[in-house]
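Tutorial handout. Part one gives the primary structure; part two gives the three-dimensional structure as C-alpha coordinates.
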Amino acid sequence: MNQLPDPTFMKPQTSSARDWVKTLAQYREPNLGRSVFEIGVTVVPFVALWALAWVCLSVSPWLTLGISVLNAAFLLRLFTIQHDCGHGAFFEKRAVGDWVGRVLGVLTVTPYDVWRRTHSIHHSAAGNLGRRGIGDIQTLTVAEYGALSRFGKVMYRIYRNPVTLFGFAPSYLFLLQNRLPLGLTNHVRYWVSAMGTNLSIVLALGVIWYFGGLMPLLLIFLPTTVLAATAGMWLFYVQHQFEETHWNAEEEWQLHDAALQGSSHYVMPKVLQWFSANIGIHHVHHLYSRIPFYRLPEVLRDHTDLEQANRLTIRESLQCAKLHLWDENSRKLLSFAQARALYD
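Part two.
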Protein backbone atom coordinates (compact mmCIF):
# COMPACT_ATOMS: atom_id res chain seq x y z
CA MET A 1 0.00 0.00 0.00
CA ASN A 2 1.34 3.44 -0.91
CA GLN A 3 1.77 5.63 2.15
CA LEU A 4 0.92 9.31 1.93
CA PRO A 5 3.90 11.67 2.37
CA ASP A 6 4.12 12.81 5.93
CA PRO A 7 7.70 13.75 6.91
CA THR A 8 6.88 16.29 9.63
CA PHE A 9 4.06 14.47 11.36
CA MET A 10 4.50 13.58 15.00
CA LYS A 11 1.76 12.38 17.32
CA PRO A 12 1.66 13.74 20.87
CA GLN A 13 1.77 11.27 23.72
CA THR A 14 -1.74 10.12 24.60
CA SER A 15 -0.94 10.03 28.32
CA SER A 16 -0.24 13.76 28.30
CA ALA A 17 -3.49 14.94 26.76
CA ARG A 18 -5.37 15.47 30.02
CA ASP A 19 -2.34 17.10 31.62
CA TRP A 20 -2.12 19.62 28.80
CA VAL A 21 -5.52 21.00 29.78
CA LYS A 22 -4.10 22.31 33.05
CA THR A 23 -1.17 23.89 31.25
CA LEU A 24 -3.34 25.54 28.60
CA ALA A 25 -5.73 27.04 31.14
CA GLN A 26 -3.27 29.89 31.74
CA TYR A 27 -3.83 31.15 28.18
CA ARG A 28 -7.62 31.36 28.33
CA GLU A 29 -8.10 34.97 29.46
CA PRO A 30 -8.99 37.32 26.58
CA ASN A 31 -7.72 40.88 26.37
CA LEU A 32 -10.59 43.31 25.74
CA GLY A 33 -8.47 45.81 23.81
CA ARG A 34 -6.95 43.10 21.63
CA SER A 35 -10.36 41.55 20.92
CA VAL A 36 -11.84 44.90 19.88
CA PHE A 37 -8.75 45.59 17.76
CA GLU A 38 -9.04 42.25 15.95
CA ILE A 39 -12.69 42.95 15.14
CA GLY A 40 -11.84 46.44 13.91
CA VAL A 41 -8.99 45.40 11.61
CA THR A 42 -11.30 42.82 10.04
CA VAL A 43 -14.68 44.60 9.85
CA VAL A 44 -13.34 47.93 8.59
CA PRO A 45 -11.45 46.47 5.59
CA PHE A 46 -14.38 44.14 4.86
CA VAL A 47 -16.84 47.04 4.67
CA ALA A 48 -14.36 49.23 2.79
CA LEU A 49 -13.70 46.55 0.16
CA TRP A 50 -17.45 45.95 -0.20
CA ALA A 51 -17.92 49.68 -0.88
CA LEU A 52 -14.94 49.81 -3.25
CA ALA A 53 -16.23 46.80 -5.19
CA TRP A 54 -19.62 48.51 -5.52
CA VAL A 55 -18.04 51.73 -6.80
CA CYS A 56 -15.99 49.74 -9.30
CA LEU A 57 -19.13 48.27 -10.85
CA SER A 58 -19.22 51.38 -13.04
CA VAL A 59 -15.62 50.80 -14.07
CA SER A 60 -15.32 47.06 -14.70
CA PRO A 61 -17.28 44.02 -13.49
CA TRP A 62 -14.01 42.06 -13.52
CA LEU A 63 -12.39 44.57 -11.18
CA THR A 64 -15.40 44.27 -8.88
CA LEU A 65 -15.14 40.50 -8.97
CA GLY A 66 -11.43 40.64 -8.16
CA ILE A 67 -12.06 42.84 -5.13
CA SER A 68 -14.80 40.45 -4.00
CA VAL A 69 -12.36 37.53 -4.20
CA LEU A 70 -9.96 39.43 -1.93
CA ASN A 71 -12.77 40.34 0.45
CA ALA A 72 -13.63 36.66 0.90
CA ALA A 73 -10.48 36.40 3.01
CA PHE A 74 -11.80 39.05 5.41
CA LEU A 75 -15.18 37.32 5.55
CA LEU A 76 -13.42 34.08 6.46
CA ARG A 77 -11.68 35.93 9.28
CA LEU A 78 -15.01 37.32 10.49
CA PHE A 79 -16.31 33.77 10.66
CA THR A 80 -13.36 32.68 12.78
CA ILE A 81 -14.01 35.59 15.15
CA GLN A 82 -17.64 34.47 15.32
CA HIS A 83 -16.25 31.01 16.03
CA ASP A 84 -14.26 32.31 19.01
CA CYS A 85 -17.34 34.13 20.30
CA GLY A 86 -19.22 30.83 20.15
CA HIS A 87 -16.62 29.27 22.43
CA GLY A 88 -16.81 32.15 24.91
CA ALA A 89 -13.17 32.86 24.14
CA PHE A 90 -13.27 36.40 22.76
CA PHE A 91 -14.76 38.42 25.61
CA GLU A 92 -14.76 37.91 29.36
CA LYS A 93 -18.53 38.46 29.44
CA ARG A 94 -20.27 35.69 27.52
CA ALA A 95 -23.27 37.88 26.64
CA VAL A 96 -21.02 40.38 24.84
CA GLY A 97 -19.45 37.63 22.76
CA ASP A 98 -22.85 36.15 21.96
CA TRP A 99 -24.24 39.42 20.61
CA VAL A 100 -21.10 40.12 18.60
CA GLY A 101 -21.42 36.59 17.22
CA ARG A 102 -25.07 37.14 16.28
CA VAL A 103 -24.23 40.33 14.38
CA LEU A 104 -21.34 38.63 12.58
CA GLY A 105 -23.67 35.73 11.81
CA VAL A 106 -25.63 38.01 9.49
CA LEU A 107 -22.46 38.79 7.52
CA THR A 108 -21.39 35.13 7.44
CA VAL A 109 -25.01 33.98 6.71
CA THR A 110 -24.70 31.61 9.68
CA PRO A 111 -27.32 31.68 12.47
CA TYR A 112 -25.10 32.09 15.50
CA ASP A 113 -27.01 30.17 18.16
CA VAL A 114 -27.71 27.26 15.82
CA TRP A 115 -24.10 27.07 14.74
CA ARG A 116 -22.81 27.42 18.31
CA ARG A 117 -24.88 24.42 19.40
CA THR A 118 -23.93 22.16 16.49
CA HIS A 119 -20.29 23.17 16.82
CA SER A 120 -20.40 22.38 20.52
CA ILE A 121 -21.66 18.91 19.64
CA HIS A 122 -18.76 18.57 17.23
CA HIS A 123 -16.26 19.43 19.97
CA SER A 124 -17.84 17.07 22.45
CA ALA A 125 -17.91 14.13 20.03
CA ALA A 126 -15.01 14.57 17.58
CA GLY A 127 -13.38 11.22 16.92
CA ASN A 128 -16.24 9.26 18.50
CA LEU A 129 -17.50 6.63 16.06
CA GLY A 130 -20.70 6.30 18.03
CA ARG A 131 -21.62 9.99 17.85
CA ARG A 132 -21.19 11.01 14.23
CA GLY A 133 -23.73 13.07 12.33
CA ILE A 134 -23.91 16.64 13.65
CA GLY A 135 -21.31 19.29 12.97
CA ASP A 136 -18.90 16.98 11.17
CA ILE A 137 -18.05 15.51 7.77
CA GLN A 138 -19.58 12.09 7.30
CA THR A 139 -16.87 9.45 7.62
CA LEU A 140 -17.50 5.72 7.36
CA THR A 141 -15.26 2.91 8.51
CA VAL A 142 -13.99 0.38 5.99
CA ALA A 143 -16.37 -2.21 7.44
CA GLU A 144 -19.36 0.13 7.28
CA TYR A 145 -18.62 1.01 3.68
CA GLY A 146 -18.25 -2.66 2.77
CA ALA A 147 -21.69 -3.39 4.23
CA LEU A 148 -23.42 -0.77 2.06
CA SER A 149 -25.51 -1.64 -0.96
CA ARG A 150 -24.10 -0.75 -4.37
CA PHE A 151 -26.30 2.35 -4.42
CA GLY A 152 -25.12 3.30 -0.92
CA LYS A 153 -21.49 3.01 -1.99
CA VAL A 154 -22.09 5.19 -5.03
CA MET A 155 -23.79 7.85 -2.90
CA TYR A 156 -20.96 7.85 -0.35
CA ARG A 157 -18.39 8.14 -3.13
CA ILE A 158 -20.28 11.10 -4.56
CA TYR A 159 -20.45 12.72 -1.12
CA ARG A 160 -16.72 12.27 -0.46
CA ASN A 161 -15.68 13.44 -3.93
CA PRO A 162 -13.73 16.73 -3.75
CA VAL A 163 -16.03 18.26 -6.35
CA THR A 164 -18.94 17.69 -3.96
CA LEU A 165 -17.18 18.58 -0.71
CA PHE A 166 -15.40 21.70 -1.95
CA GLY A 167 -17.49 22.61 -4.98
CA PHE A 168 -21.17 22.17 -4.17
CA ALA A 169 -21.25 21.57 -0.41
CA PRO A 170 -20.04 25.02 0.79
CA SER A 171 -22.71 26.87 -1.21
CA TYR A 172 -25.40 24.41 -0.13
CA LEU A 173 -24.37 24.55 3.51
CA PHE A 174 -24.09 28.32 3.90
CA LEU A 175 -26.71 29.56 1.45
CA LEU A 176 -29.40 26.89 1.90
CA GLN A 177 -28.93 24.54 4.86
CA ASN A 178 -28.15 27.36 7.28
CA ARG A 179 -31.59 28.81 6.64
CA LEU A 180 -33.13 26.12 8.86
CA PRO A 181 -32.00 24.82 12.28
CA LEU A 182 -31.58 21.27 10.99
CA GLY A 183 -30.98 18.79 13.78
CA LEU A 184 -32.36 21.24 16.34
CA THR A 185 -35.88 21.79 15.02
CA ASN A 186 -37.55 20.82 18.31
CA HIS A 187 -36.18 23.90 20.06
CA VAL A 188 -37.81 27.31 19.67
CA ARG A 189 -34.56 29.07 20.52
CA TYR A 190 -32.87 27.78 17.39
CA TRP A 191 -35.81 28.66 15.17
CA VAL A 192 -35.57 32.21 16.53
CA SER A 193 -31.85 32.26 15.76
CA ALA A 194 -32.30 30.95 12.21
CA MET A 195 -35.32 33.08 11.33
CA GLY A 196 -33.89 36.20 12.95
CA THR A 197 -30.67 35.81 10.97
CA ASN A 198 -32.63 35.08 7.78
CA LEU A 199 -34.76 38.19 8.23
CA SER A 200 -31.68 40.34 8.80
CA ILE A 201 -30.02 38.92 5.68
CA VAL A 202 -33.14 39.53 3.57
CA LEU A 203 -33.39 43.13 4.81
CA ALA A 204 -29.69 43.77 4.09
CA LEU A 205 -29.89 42.23 0.63
CA GLY A 206 -33.11 44.13 -0.03
CA VAL A 207 -31.39 47.42 0.70
CA ILE A 208 -28.52 46.46 -1.59
CA TRP A 209 -30.99 45.49 -4.34
CA TYR A 210 -32.93 48.75 -3.92
CA PHE A 211 -29.88 50.97 -4.28
CA GLY A 212 -27.73 48.89 -6.62
CA GLY A 213 -29.88 46.35 -8.39
CA LEU A 214 -28.81 42.79 -9.14
CA MET A 215 -25.11 43.30 -9.92
CA PRO A 216 -23.87 43.93 -6.35
CA LEU A 217 -25.54 40.69 -5.29
CA LEU A 218 -24.13 38.66 -8.18
CA LEU A 219 -20.63 40.15 -8.29
CA ILE A 220 -19.99 41.02 -4.64
CA PHE A 221 -22.25 39.19 -2.20
CA LEU A 222 -22.29 35.77 -3.86
CA PRO A 223 -18.58 35.47 -4.79
CA THR A 224 -17.44 36.76 -1.40
CA THR A 225 -19.74 34.43 0.51
CA VAL A 226 -19.14 31.32 -1.60
CA LEU A 227 -15.35 31.68 -1.68
CA ALA A 228 -15.18 32.27 2.08
CA ALA A 229 -17.43 29.24 2.62
CA THR A 230 -15.23 27.10 0.37
CA ALA A 231 -12.06 28.13 2.19
CA GLY A 232 -13.76 27.46 5.52
CA MET A 233 -14.88 24.03 4.33
CA TRP A 234 -11.35 23.13 3.29
CA LEU A 235 -9.91 24.26 6.60
CA PHE A 236 -12.49 22.28 8.56
CA TYR A 237 -11.75 19.23 6.41
CA VAL A 238 -7.98 19.17 6.83
CA GLN A 239 -8.27 19.90 10.54
CA HIS A 240 -9.73 16.42 11.11
CA GLN A 241 -9.50 14.42 7.87
CA PHE A 242 -5.80 13.61 7.79
CA GLU A 243 -4.17 10.18 7.62
CA GLU A 244 -3.04 9.93 11.24
CA THR A 245 -6.20 11.34 12.79
CA HIS A 246 -7.95 9.75 15.77
CA TRP A 247 -11.22 7.79 15.92
CA ASN A 248 -12.43 5.31 18.54
CA ALA A 249 -15.52 3.32 19.36
CA GLU A 250 -17.60 5.11 21.99
CA GLU A 251 -16.63 2.76 24.83
CA GLU A 252 -12.93 3.43 24.16
CA TRP A 253 -13.20 7.11 23.25
CA GLN A 254 -11.63 9.73 25.52
CA LEU A 255 -12.34 13.44 25.03
CA HIS A 256 -8.86 14.85 25.61
CA ASP A 257 -7.01 12.22 23.59
CA ALA A 258 -9.43 12.67 20.70
CA ALA A 259 -9.07 16.46 20.84
CA LEU A 260 -5.27 16.47 20.83
CA GLN A 261 -4.61 13.57 18.47
CA GLY A 262 -7.56 13.99 16.13
CA SER A 263 -6.91 17.61 15.16
CA SER A 264 -4.12 18.77 12.89
CA HIS A 265 -1.63 21.60 13.21
CA TYR A 266 -2.07 23.14 9.76
CA VAL A 267 1.12 25.04 9.00
CA MET A 268 0.45 28.01 6.71
CA PRO A 269 2.29 31.14 5.59
CA LYS A 270 1.86 34.09 7.95
CA VAL A 271 -0.63 35.90 5.72
CA LEU A 272 -2.91 32.87 5.51
CA GLN A 273 -2.50 32.26 9.21
CA TRP A 274 -3.68 35.83 9.81
CA PHE A 275 -6.72 35.59 7.54
CA SER A 276 -7.70 32.25 9.10
CA ALA A 277 -7.16 33.66 12.60
CA ASN A 278 -4.77 30.86 13.64
CA ILE A 279 -7.48 28.24 13.23
CA GLY A 280 -4.77 25.94 11.83
CA ILE A 281 -3.47 25.52 15.40
CA HIS A 282 -6.43 23.26 15.73
CA HIS A 283 -5.03 20.58 18.03
CA VAL A 284 -4.54 23.21 20.74
CA HIS A 285 -7.92 24.77 20.03
CA HIS A 286 -9.75 21.46 20.38
CA LEU A 287 -7.95 20.63 23.59
CA TYR A 288 -8.80 24.01 25.13
CA SER A 289 -11.35 25.93 23.07
CA ARG A 290 -11.56 28.90 25.47
CA ILE A 291 -8.18 30.23 24.30
CA PRO A 292 -8.64 33.34 22.09
CA PHE A 293 -7.20 32.78 18.63
CA TYR A 294 -4.65 35.55 19.09
CA ARG A 295 -3.12 33.69 22.04
CA LEU A 296 -2.70 30.35 20.27
CA PRO A 297 0.77 31.29 18.88
CA GLU A 298 1.84 31.94 22.48
CA VAL A 299 1.07 28.32 23.27
CA LEU A 300 3.25 27.04 20.43
CA ARG A 301 6.02 29.48 21.35
CA ASP A 302 6.06 28.27 24.95
CA HIS A 303 5.56 24.55 24.30
CA THR A 304 7.64 23.01 21.52
CA ASP A 305 5.96 19.61 21.92
CA LEU A 306 2.70 21.12 20.74
CA GLU A 307 4.43 23.15 18.04
CA GLN A 308 5.81 19.95 16.51
CA ALA A 309 2.73 17.76 16.99
CA ASN A 310 0.35 16.84 14.16
CA ARG A 311 2.03 19.22 11.68
CA LEU A 312 0.45 19.29 8.25
CA THR A 313 1.84 21.48 5.48
CA ILE A 314 -0.26 22.85 2.63
CA ARG A 315 1.44 20.49 0.18
CA GLU A 316 0.75 17.49 2.40
CA SER A 317 -2.81 18.59 3.01
CA LEU A 318 -3.67 18.23 -0.68
CA GLN A 319 -3.26 14.48 -0.27
CA CYS A 320 -5.96 14.50 2.42
CA ALA A 321 -8.62 15.00 -0.25
CA LYS A 322 -7.92 11.41 -1.34
CA LEU A 323 -8.79 9.95 2.08
CA HIS A 324 -12.28 8.53 2.54
CA LEU A 325 -12.53 5.64 5.04
CA TRP A 326 -11.40 5.01 8.60
CA ASP A 327 -9.62 1.69 9.01
CA GLU A 328 -10.05 0.42 12.55
CA ASN A 329 -7.22 -2.08 12.12
CA SER A 330 -4.43 0.21 10.93
CA ARG A 331 -6.04 3.19 12.70
CA LYS A 332 -5.64 5.44 9.69
CA LEU A 333 -7.77 7.16 7.13
CA LEU A 334 -7.48 5.39 3.80
CA SER A 335 -8.42 6.14 0.23
CA PHE A 336 -10.88 3.85 -1.52
CA ALA A 337 -7.95 2.38 -3.46
CA GLN A 338 -5.94 1.71 -0.33
CA ALA A 339 -8.88 0.03 1.36
CA ARG A 340 -9.52 -2.11 -1.71
CA ALA A 341 -5.86 -3.17 -1.85
CA LEU A 342 -5.91 -4.18 1.80
CA TYR A 343 -9.22 -6.02 2.04
CA ASP A 344 -10.40 -7.14 -1.42
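Part three, for discussion. The first strand starts at residue 140 and ends at 141. The CA atoms of residues 1 and 337 lie 9 Å apart.
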